[in-house]
Amino acid sequence: MSSVNETHDPSLKSWVESANMPGCDFPIQNLPFAQFKRAGSDENFRGGVAIGNQIIDLARLTALSVFSGKANKAASAGAQSSLNALMAMGRETCSELRLSLSRGLRLDSAEKQQIEQCMVSQNEAEFSLPCVIGDYTDFYTSLHHATSIGKLFRPDNPLLPNYKWVPIGYHGRASSIDVSGQTFHRPIGQLKLPDENKPFLSTTKRLDHELEIGIFIGAGNKLGEPIDIELAENHVFGFCLFNDWSARDIQAWEYQPLGPFLGKSFASTISPWIVTLEALAPYRAPFTRPAEDPQPLVYLTSDSNSASGGIDIKLQVLIQTEKMRNDGLPPEKIADSNFIYSYWTVAQMVTHHTVNGCNLRPGDLLGSGTQSGPLPEQAGSLLELSKGGKQTITLGNGESRTFIEDGDSLIIRGYCQNDSAARIGFGEVSSTVLPAQSS
Question: Which domains are assigned to the chain?
Fold first, then answer.
């Protein structure tokens, strides 16, 4: 697993002044990756690295030959029209680029003048998906979410028998994943009311968000070669924020016997910035299970995973209704949670995904599943916050919600902070619901 090194030193300051401001998501200790171009231009999208309110253009950095060796090769790969080539290089090479960027951005850097020529303001940029997402798997790693949802449908037996033994997941639809700013039409599908004999086609009435972490695969594995849990994090490039939208009424009718389908495939939204796994090293935490719970099978167990498999990522969900936007009101927070509550670690997800020989490829995306905490206000979906639609949520402007309505924007934010490390953030992911096109 990634260890703390000189790039994490909380005393480091950058010559990019905005990176040193309190509360900045992108200080010198972070350095996340994205695909960008100048908004409204005919430029090609290319890789960039965030520092303060600026973006380091990796294409320009490569053209100026600012770095050498592995760092230069990684910068050149990152300068392409997707980050897949950089992801494929693996952790060691990507770490060399991160170290070179960190040194080049410090106050005493000899490379300041060259790197200054590579800067683009984030205010002038637009973003695309950071990579080609070949495959997408959504896990179900929050015990609190699974229990809350289970209680709505199976009060006497909320958790299915396999939940505490196996990291549950399903193969999702990569084609409908888009970057923050995504708008989509309210989906249509088959619904069935409890007192009706047959289903009917209609727009969803129970549109919901899901607070998730997205995990991007770096170096892949060959078909038929499982990834050992001790090596699993070598295959992880980094994390983003992820809103996996759900149509709960469509989902409820269709999910048995084969699981999610049209209730999940109409839209999913990710934040533009990928925070590398290395950047998260100061926020690692032990992974433990209650003594009364089944302990993971041997292939899902390692000393390093037990010592630091957890990651402390603070998460927030906000809503901004159409009326709030029109009235000039900011988004309102409706939930807090934390990735630390995940019942399964990232290493366990990767290992279990490949134990049957499944091959992962650079740019594949794993969703963590809805990240709910143990308290009611830490619920990662409206299905939980509204108790299945039975409890109204009243917003500060007097509006109320049980599920998402047309015109609503959902925003997810995340950051890491503790007393011994610099605060780093993920930016945000936002997306807006449009009315259905037809019914």
Answer: 6-128 (2.30.30.230), 136-434 (3.90.850.10)
